Amino acid sequence: MTAAPRAGPLVVVVDYGAGNLVSIDEAMRTAGARVRLATKGDDIDGADLLVVPGVGAAAPAMERLRGGGFVEPIAAWVAADRPFLGICLGLQLLFEASDEDGAQTLGVLPGRTVRLDAAPTLPHIGWNQVERTRDHSLFDGIADGADFYFVHSYAGVTAGPAGDAVLATTEHGSRFTSAVARDGLLGVQFHPERSGDDGLRLLANFVDLVRAA
What we know:
Blueprint: E1 10-14, H1 21-30, E2 34-38, E3 49-52, H2 58-67, H3 71-79, E4 84-87, H4 89-92, E5 97-98, E6 111-115, E7 124-129, E8 131-132, E9 147-152, E10 154-158, E11 166-172, E12 174-182, E13 185-188, H5 196-212
């Protein structure tokens, strides 16, 4: 008798009104995961992987996260070193504060979000190269310098030992951090769900990190 195929890992996507949830849902399912949206902090229970997407500004995003009871569960999840992916604003919220509107953010990575320096255009919209500073399985099968899709005017700047978390950088006027990795904590400034085959490959690699474990 043939065994039934094992269900994919459960990815819980935090729905706080600041993300492209349809595209993320479709991309994660294509990557082999089951997907559930979380509209309140308790909905994170039972997840294998946690994704915090986001577009927009930090202050209203943090207000919505607090209103949904997400701040403490997200902090506990990261502190427990469980698989986490922040996308765009979801990466910026990991830092301590944002220059965009003075918001105090989650503070799980030392540093702050700042306006892109010497940028030829703002916002930075479109495809740009992501150049790795070190190897990581998140980018398995993806060429160094591959193009990913960006939409942002601000980016996180690490401080102190958090600098070791930088995984990739991108140039738009000056160079900024476009991916971070620290144990189970991963974050990307670009939108993998809008970045074609390489974006889907990256999300599949994220899912595979849990499947392999």
